[in-house]
Design goal:
With about 230 residues, this protein is α+β, with helices and mostly antiparallel strands. Helix content is about 20%, strand content about 25%. Strands 1-2-9-4-7 form a five-stranded antiparallel β-sheet, with no helix packed on it. Strands 6-5-8-3-10 form a five-stranded antiparallel β-sheet. The longest helix has 19 residues, at about 1-20. It comes from Nicotiana sylvestris (Wood tobacco).
Amino acid sequence: MALRTLVLTIAIMALLSSMSHAFDPSPLQDICVAVDDSMAAVFVNGKICKDPKQVMANDFFKSGLNIPGNTSNQLGSVVTAVNVGNLPGLNTLGISLARIDYAPYGLNPPHTHPRGTEILAVLEGTLYVGFVLSNPGPNMKNKLFTKILNPGDVFVFPIGLIHFQFNVGKTNAVAFAGLSSQNPGVITIANAVFGSDPPINPDVLTKAFQVDKKVVDYLQSQFWWDNN
């Protein structure tokens, strides 16, 4: 019995340890409101703290997420992010938020958040969502998990994995996403691969995607829309 308890305790500690390394570092004080001053920037993993005596309620407040985003673009979607960049009070707290608006058949294209897990809740419309696993084993393909979401449904996209959302309805859709980082980052796959600056050497992409160089040249010549 004692051995079983010890094994269980070690397993729980290992789990908690792994979880602690998957998110932003824990804060060492109650608050650390980010200084909104480009001249005060320093090379730290986050932002420097505002003098606590100068902190006010507005440092923890942001309005406007009730306003629909403009989806009149090539993707038919737009992300309105709330992160440490526009809500300084999030600094060191390890969370952020986003509103995503989708026109009919609008797409939030395949992308990753390198520093945060995302939990998505649908407010309006019907979304087809999914994510792809990494590092498949021998003789395995990257497994895809998909689901159709309706208002009130929730879906989780694990940290760092490629995921997407597609409005399969004939009406607008709205979703809200919480992320486990004050600044989760976003890498939109097509933009990063074919729209990087400077461009990736076409020989690399030709071999990676097993396509003719003309296809790569065409894709690199396109305008890759950023909906974030």
